[in-house]
Design goal:
12 helices, 67% helix, two-stranded antiparallel sheet, mainly alpha, single chain
C-alpha cells in the first residue's frame, strides 16, 4: 500500500510538472512557428536559440506590478484566473499517458486514475473553465472585459453542443466512457484500429470545436485585440494575467492529449506487437509515441493560428449552430444506423 501511494504521488507530481513545462515551452514554440511562417528569427537572445525565453517571460510576470482596479470586485477578480488555471490542470488526471510498467513483479499504470465516467469528468472540468473567464471579465468592471467574457461563454456553449454529440457517437461505437478502455480497444498494432478511421467526421467536428473551446484563432473572439483591447483579461496584470495565458496553453496541451487518446490510439502505435521488445520497453516507446502525437496537434494549433484570419462573430455563430451542430447530429444518426446494421 505504501509503495502504491508513493508511486501515485510521484505520478501526480510528474504529470503536473510535465503539463507545466509543455505549456511553458509551447509559448516558445508558438513564437518560433510564427517566426518561421513569417520569415523571421523569433526569440534568440535568452540562451542558445532563445531556449530560456519562457523562463524570462515567467520571471517578468512575477516581477511586474500587480494592479487591482479600485472599481473591481477584488475577491472575484482574483478568483477568475484561479478557476481558469485549476480547471485546466485538473483534466490531466484521467489521460492514459502509457500502458503499465512492471516493477518488481507489480504492474503500475501510467494513468493517475481511470473512472468509468472518464469522458464526462474531462468535459465537465473543462467546461467549468469558462466560469473563470466569465467571473474575471465581469469582476473587472470594464465594458471590454465584460464583452469578451460574454463572447467566451456564448462561444463555448455553442461549440460544446457539437463536440458533445460527436463524442456520443464515439461512445456508442466503443460502448464505454473510460479513457483507458477506449485506448485499449485501439490496441491492434495496426492503423486500422484507430477510431479516426471509423469516426472521421466526428474527429473533424471535435478538432474544430477544440479550437473554439481553447479560444484559439480563428476562434479568438473573446480576446480580439483589434475590437476589445485585450478581451476578458484587459484589466489583469502580473501573474494573474499569466494564469489566463498559461491556462490557454495547458488547455491546448490537454485537448491534444484527448484528441490523441480518443481518435489516434493514445499510446498505441503501428506494429507495436511485432517488435519483440520487453513489456516495459513497449510501454516507454508507447508514451514517446503519445507525446509525438500530442506535439503534432500542438503544432497544428499554432499552424492554423498563423495561417487563417479571425472569423466575424456572425460567422462564428453560424459555423457552430448551422454547420457543426447539424453535422454532429447527422454523424450520430449515421453511427447509430451502422451499429444497428452490424448487430443484425
Amino acid at each position: 500500500m505504501t509503495d502504491f501511494l508513493i508511486y501515485k504521488i510521484l505520478l501526480v507530481v510528474g504529470v503536473f510538472t510535465i503539463t507545466l513545462v509543455v505549456a511553458m515551452y509551447a509559448t516558445y514554440g508558438e513564437r518560433k512557428v510564427a517566426a518561421f511562417l513569417q520569415d523571421r528569427i523569433g526569440p534568440n537572445r535568452a540562451g542558445p536559440f532563445g531556449i530560456l525565453q519562457p523562463l524570462a517571460d515567467g520571471l517578468k510576470f512575477f516581477m511586474k506590478e500587480e494592479i487591482i482596479p479600485s472599481v473591481s470586485n477584488k475577491f472575484l477578480f482574483i478568483l477568475g484566473p484561479s478557476i481558469a488555471m485549476i480547471t485546466a490542470l485538473m483534466a490531466g488526471v484521467l489521460i492514459p499517458w502509457g500502458n503499465t510498467l512492471i516493477i518488481n513483479g507489480t504492474a503500475y499504470s501510467l494513468q493517475i486514475t481511470d473512472i468509468n465516467i472518464g469522458i464526462l469528468y474531462v468535459f465537465g472540468v473543462v467546461s467549468i473553465g469558462v466560469y473563470g473567464i466569465m467571473i474575471g471579465g465581469w469582476a473587472s468592471n470594464n465594458k471590454y472585459s465584460l464583452l469578451g467574457a460574454i463572447r467566451a461563454s456564448a462561444q463555448m456553449i455553442s461549440y460544446e453542443l457539437a463536440m458533445g454529440i460527436s463524442i456520443i457517437a464515439l461512445i456508442m461505437m466503443t460502448g464505454t466512457l473510460s479513457l483507458g478502455e477506449i485506448v485499449n480497444q485501439q490496441a491492434g498494432g495496426d492503423w486500422n484500429f484507430w477510431n479516426v478511421v471509423y469516426q472521421p467526421l466526428g474527429f473533424l467536428i471535435f478538432i474544430v470545436c477544440a479550437f473554439a473551446e481553447c479560444n484559439r484563432a480563428p476562434f479568438d473572439l473573446p480576446e480580439c485585440e483589434t475590437e476589445l483591447v485585450g478581451g476578458y483579461h484587459t484589466e489583469y496584470s502580473s501573474m494573474k494575467l499569466g494564469f489566463y495565458m498559461f491556462a490557454e496553453y495547458i488547455n491546448m496541451f490537454i485537448s491534444s492529449a484527448v484528441l490523441s487518446t480518443l481518435y489516434f490510439g493514445g499510446y498505441n502505435f503501428p506494429f507495436m506487437n511485432d517488435l519483440g521488445l520487453s513489456h516495459n520497453a513497449i510501454t516507454i516507446l508507447g508514451t514517446v509515441f503519445l507525446f509525438a502525437k500530442i506535439f503534432f496537434f500542438i503544432f497544428f494549433f499554432m499552424w492554423v493560428r498563423w495561417t487563417l484570419p479571425r472569423f466575424r462573430y456572425d460567422q462564428l455563430m453560424n459555423l457552430g449552430w448551422r454547420v457543426l451542430l447539424p453535422l454532429s447530429i447527422a454523424n450520430l444518426l449515421l453511427t447509430a444506423l451502422v451499429l444497428l446494421w452490424i448487430d443484425k
